Amino acid sequence: MGTATAPAAPAKAARKPATMAQALNRALHDSLAADPTVHVLGEDVGTLGGVFRITDGLAAAFGPERVTDTPLAEAGILGTAVGMAMYGLRPVVEMQFDAFGYPALEQLISHVAKMRNRTRGTMPMPITVRIPYGGGIGGVEHHSDSSEAYYLHTPGLQVVTPATVADAYGLLRASIASDDPVIFLEPKRLYWGKADWSPDEPETVPPLGRAVVRRPGRSATLITYGPSVPVCLEAAEAATAEGWDLEVVDLRSLMPFDDETVCASVRRTGRAVVVHESSGFAGTGAEIAARVMERCFHHLEAPVLRVTGFDIPYPPPMLERYHLPGVDRVLDAVARLQWED
Amino acid sequence: MTPTAPPHHLPLAEPADRYRAMRLVRGFEEQALDLVREGVIAGGIHPYIGQEAVAVGVCAALRDGDLITSTHRGHGHVLAKGASPHRMLAELAGRVTGLNRGRGGSMHAADFSLGILGANGIVGAGAPIAAGAAWAEARAGRDTVVTAFFGDGALNQGVLLETFNLAAIWRLPVLFVCENNGYATTLPAAGAVAGGAVERARAFGIPAQTVDGMDCEAVLAAAAGAVERARAGDGPSFLECRTYRFEGHHTMERRLKLGYRTAEEVAGWRERDPLPRAAAALDPGEADRIDAGIGQLLADARTFALASPAPDISGACDYLYADGLRPRAGVTL
């Protein structure tokens, strides 16, 4: 096997409307160009450019040696990535859909997550697993899961999910550059949302583990991430009619978890609602609520509430809108934050 | 006072070397069984006794820079690839001087400096790791060969079949070595593997043969051909080594008296013990001299392991992330 020569990065672009899909594509391109050990592999990432077109053009630019179409064999693909990482490569694996990642859980949990610890730091696993996740596209259950809690419960993994175009670029660059494994969850219903963006501005590359206040407010904090960020921002705007000034914290990275930003917000507002579309029981929101309680108990005016997907398999398209946390459910939760006291 | 393991080198070039290596594995395992009984090795082990000709024969076909992935029954592979018996025994005993500073234990012992990518507690899971290492080495322009050891039980794991396919379509320099010891724990391979082992590999276009896994020289001859093919860039090969474990699947099994193997069957395989067979080919007295040397080496290894300290609890959460991150850091209750 030979080594493909990396072409020069495209010329600097001015700020212009771009989609999250374009930003992710550019992040992969720039990572491949910047580091010859980066290797993209997965189902249909080459010829097709990915079912969501995130890897579009990469195989043409960098060759099949670096952007490789694999057979439909997720456990084999991720296990192969482990061996690649042991011998000098930095694999970026695409799992075509959230639930397609489950056949690879064995390699992920038993090997990717544990290798650094087991080898006492001598064998890190610089692997990024990109997974389009979440609902809202009528995809039915195997194509609409929010699987973050499975990964979060596995020490050794990092879990990252962008909510904006700029973050999609910066967080994916940072994830690929990380020496530890990252589960990079791409909110598939935000792929086509546009924003003005240029990849060349330094502030578009946040480090992993930093949450951001998307909307400042004084009444209560909405703690959220990924596809639920736009929902919470919309809810916060609607809440002004009720007299509530809501703060919205976008976690961006679930592990590492930014306790500092979250707790600073909750200490200011005294009230918090966690919003995510994955199931509530033993979910991400449970960990967040516990952390807030452990750190901010004496600042809380009300229990931390959760607005989540129902504890059911992902429902069919005609029922999706009930399952996904929407503005009304978020505002209902805010209304239950013991304002009368 | 933490002792330091002496330098260790295990030549495999000559028949006497290979007998010595098999004696090392056999003696290591016998001593490990003692240490399990004594409570020094917690959790028990999967003894390799009876299968020594496979690990030694295959590793004798490899170069120093070649790589292996191993199994839950991995002590033989790890030792035959050259790991220090001192540090391996210390690893089993969970001591800081172990190959993985006591964190890997019996089923995750690894020594990357020797190309030992690790024993593995998940059946079949080492195969794709071998394929990935083979990909990376080939792409780097090196002619490294990667051997994936696994048992007959792994033949029914989907990931092994996935890896057959990946290695074949990408012509990876991988040697698949199936140690067919007749049983996946208690399930007889004869009734569990439809179509047969070599037939499965051949279905992927992978050259495959069955070899007497109780004959170290026969294993070496077959492995050497497969390794040469892989090193030349002609892709993967598959060896089914027919072998037998003289002990139970796991040390726990001794107490269970399961009776899934007849005494006659075990005795019949013991008559085919690879060690006397290899010893018979040596000069008179040579095997005895080798045995005495190995006995001393293993006694030293035992002393070393027992004199080594256990890990300190203060490091329990270390090495989880590059930056020392701990998920529950900051919580005091």
UniProtKB/TrEMBL annotation, chain A:
<keyword id="KW-0560">Oxidoreductase</keyword>
<dbReference type="InterPro" id="IPR005475">
    <property type="entry name" value="Transketolase-like_Pyr-bd"/>
</dbReference>
<dbReference type="InterPro" id="IPR033248">
    <property type="entry name" value="Transketolase_C"/>
</dbReference>
<dbReference type="InterPro" id="IPR029061">
    <property type="entry name" value="THDP-binding"/>
</dbReference>
<dbReference type="Pfam" id="PF02780">
    <property type="entry name" value="Transketolase_C"/>
</dbReference>
<protein>
    <recommendedName>
        <fullName>3-methyl-2-oxobutanoate dehydrogenase (2-methylpropanoyl-transferring)</fullName>
        <ecNumber>1.2.4.4</ecNumber>
    </recommendedName>
</protein>
<dbReference type="InterPro" id="IPR009014">
    <property type="entry name" value="Transketo_C/PFOR_II"/>
</dbReference>
<dbReference type="GO" id="GO:0007584">
    <property type="term" value="P:response to nutrient"/>
</dbReference>
<dbReference type="GO" id="GO:0000287">
    <property type="term" value="F:magnesium ion binding"/>
</dbReference>
<dbReference type="GO" id="GO:0009083">
    <property type="term" value="P:branched-chain amino acid catabolic process"/>
</dbReference>
<dbReference type="GO" id="GO:0003863">
    <property type="term" value="F:branched-chain 2-oxo acid dehydrogenase activity"/>
</dbReference>
<feature type="domain" description="Transketolase-like pyrimidine-binding">
    <location>
        <begin position="18"/>
        <end position="193"/>
    </location>
</feature>
<dbReference type="Pfam" id="PF02779">
    <property type="entry name" value="Transket_pyr"/>
</dbReference>
Automatic annotation (TrEMBL), chain B:
<keyword id="KW-0560">Oxidoreductase</keyword>
<dbReference type="InterPro" id="IPR029061">
    <property type="entry name" value="THDP-binding"/>
</dbReference>
<dbReference type="InterPro" id="IPR050642">
    <property type="entry name" value="PDH_E1_Alpha_Subunit"/>
</dbReference>
<feature type="domain" description="Dehydrogenase E1 component">
    <location>
        <begin position="21"/>
        <end position="281"/>
    </location>
</feature>
<dbReference type="Pfam" id="PF00676">
    <property type="entry name" value="E1_dh"/>
</dbReference>
<dbReference type="InterPro" id="IPR001017">
    <property type="entry name" value="DH_E1"/>
</dbReference>
<protein>
    <submittedName>
        <fullName>Thiamine pyrophosphate-dependent dehydrogenase E1 component subunit alpha</fullName>
    </submittedName>
</protein>
<keyword id="KW-0786">Thiamine pyrophosphate</keyword>
